[in-house]
Design brief:
This protein has five helices and two strands. The protein has about 110 residues and is α+β, with helices and mostly antiparallel strands. The protein has two domains: about 60 residues, 434 Repressor (Amino-terminal Domain) (Orthogonal Bundle); about 35 residues, no CATH class. Strand 1 and strand 2 form a beta hairpin.
Amino acid sequence: MRANVASVRKGQGLTLRDVADRLADIGHPMAHNTVSEIERGARRVDVDDLMALAAALGVTPTALLGVDSGDIVVTPGPAVLELQGGARLNVVIGPTAAGEVGHGDD
């Protein structure tokens, strides 16, 4: 993910401070040095950070993960998503508030 964040940012001609400003504008403040730590792999990224970075950069979260969204199939229960570079993302789709697994527009 780190290389993808840096690649997208640089491809858009943005500085680390530009990304930090965009993150603050969408209500997810993050210092420019924190963005740098993410790009260097020195800081872990939680789902909230992933979503905010994607929004700030105008791309999908899967683009930052290096996954083609066409390769993702959502099913109930645990799943392992193979990422670019051999990394693995463990995902569990849980029950909705009604106790049933959500299925898109259901």
